[in-house]
Fold this sequence. Notes:
Blueprint: H1 3-13, H2 16-28, E1 33-34, H3 35-42, H4 46-58, E2 62-67, E3 70-75, H5 77-88, H6 100-106
Antiparallel strand pairs: 1-3, 2-3
Helix pairs in contact: 1-4, 2-4, 3-4
Amino acid sequence: xxxxxxxxxxxxxxxxxxxxxxxxxxxxxxxxxxxxxxxxxxxxxxxxxxxxxxxxxxxxxxxxxxxxxxxxxxxxxxxxxxxxxxxxxxxxxxxxxxxxxxxxxxxxxx
Length: 110
């Protein structure tokens, strides 16, 4: 991930609804959630939710799959890994082994 892509991701997460959406989709895991369910859970109107989902998708933080007439959204774990890798690429003054405990804590089997 390059600096501009990282800035896009941070900008997407810097708004409360989008951060809530991303965290909700992380929690939903591989089952994801429909846009309607996300909006209902967070008490956000459909048009507002659509805009926020589009911003998160453009930032590479979520992905979607069409299911008939609805769309299911998922946290894009590769996008998140890329962002975390960008933040930690020069970890500990070039001694990445010192950051291994943090990396191990962040890693999941999802």
